[in-house]
């Protein structure tokens, strides 16, 4: 689906602030090898991860989201927003949505607030929703947060997922502006394929399992992923949707200064970058030190790269993601002059 960046008036969403947050707890590969049948070499070779941040007991997704949101608002130089959009797979509870609580914690009581669920593609789906609020005139300023406490749905004894997933949050502030400004969000290309919903899932806990009257099997409350099939689909879809986004922006692939892809694992990132023909030095990555943070991975990557000087004003940035659903998305924009 090609989502136009704005109506004929030219009113579009413009990035004016960015922030990221990871909890202080760190789990290294050495920590995992002490209790799992794995090794540092095995983890690094297959995922590219050396360490990941994890929440402390009692910490929730909203806590991560509030901190990232606060940092993004500070970056934007204004603590106000008309709407809060939260992309997450791990809400604080099934009902109500987590976004209103996050908004209240940030002093934004009264602002429109809702959750978006698109797993690892959540930030781009949330970006489409937030851009639509601005393009329609519903909001002048939107705080978009992506946050996941992914370790709360991971089986700690399942080697294939426990070594990959981590906790974190990232956020951007969007304001109404024009398409010719740096930071203007371009067309957002989105897609899904529900025929393969079982590649990435948490089988138990939803209405289908609960209405069956059959207790879940042990382990069905945890996240599951069929790695080999997911790898193939992720590479194919992220490559194709990235090409569409670059074409929609009127660019050629060699025009892309920075690729900011969902930090799924190092093998997927390498395969997508190679297929797109984007050199290593133009690929942003933080997976080695933060792992796969779900919906948070792209905005967290943008915040860290901007803070470290790897992403600067004027860079032409390609964003792309793939996640459960299956769902995927991509967009392109010129990075603005913002301080993370």
Automatic annotation (TrEMBL):
One of its GO terms (molecular function) is beta-ketoacyl-acyl-carrier-protein synthase III activity. Residues 247-335 form the Beta-ketoacyl-[acyl-carrier-protein] synthase III C-terminal domain. It is found in: Cytoplasm. Its main location: cytoplasm. Catalyzes the condensation reaction of fatty acid synthesis by the addition to an acyl acceptor of two carbons from malonyl-ACP. Catalyzes the first condensation reaction which initiates fatty acid synthesis and may therefore play a role in governing the total rate of fatty acid production. Possesses both acetoacetyl-ACP synthase and acetyl transacylase activities. Its substrate specificity determines the biosynthesis of branched-chain and/or straight-chain of fatty acids. The last Arg residue of the ACP-binding site is essential for the weak association between ACP/AcpP and FabH. This is Beta-ketoacyl-[acyl-carrier-protein] synthase III. It comes from Streptomyces triculaminicus.
């Amino acid at each position: 689906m090609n989502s136009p960046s704005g109506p004929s008036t030219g009113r579009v969403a413009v990035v004016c602030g960015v922030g990221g947050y990871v909890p202080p707890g760190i789990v290294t590969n050495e920590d995992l090898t002490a209790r799992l049948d794995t090794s540092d070499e095995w983890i690094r070779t297959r995922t590219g991860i050396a360490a990941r941040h994890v929440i402390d007991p009692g910490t929730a997704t909203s806590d991560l989201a509030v901190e990232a949101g606060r940092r993004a608002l500070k970056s934007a130089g204004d603590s106000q927003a008309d709407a809060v959009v939260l992309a997450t797979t791990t809400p604080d509870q099934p009902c109500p949505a987590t976004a209103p609580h996050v908004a209240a914690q940030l002093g934004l009581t009264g602002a429109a607030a809702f959750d978006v669920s698109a797993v690892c593609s959540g930030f781009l789906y949330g970006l489409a929703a937030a851009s639509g609020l601005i393009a329609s005139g519903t909001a002048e300023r939107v705080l978009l947060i992506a946050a996941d406490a992914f370790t709360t749905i991971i089986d700690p004894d399942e080697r294939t997922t426990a070594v990959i997933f981590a906790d974190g949050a990232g956020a951007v502030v969007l304001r109404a502006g024009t398409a010719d400004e740096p930071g203007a969000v371009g067309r957002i290309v989105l897609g899904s394929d529900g025929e393969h919903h079982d590649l990435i899932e948490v089988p138990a806990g939803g209405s289908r399992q609960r209405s069956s009257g059959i207790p879940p099997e042990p382990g069905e409350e945890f996240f599951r992923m069929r790695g080999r099939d997911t790898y193939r689909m992720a590479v194919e879809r992220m490559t194709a949707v990235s090409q569409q986004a670059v074409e929609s922006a009127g660019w050629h692939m060699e025009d892309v200064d920075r690729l900011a892809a969902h930090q799924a694992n190092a093998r997927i990132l390498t395969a997508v970058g190679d297929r797109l023909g984007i050199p290593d030095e133009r690929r942003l990555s933080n997976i080695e030190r933060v792992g796969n943070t779900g919906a948070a991975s792209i905005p967290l990557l943008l915040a860290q790269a901007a803070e470290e000087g790897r992403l600067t004003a004027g860079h032409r940035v390609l964003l792309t993601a793939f996640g459960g659903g299956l769902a995927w998305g991509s967009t392109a924009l010129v990075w603005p002059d913002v301080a993370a």
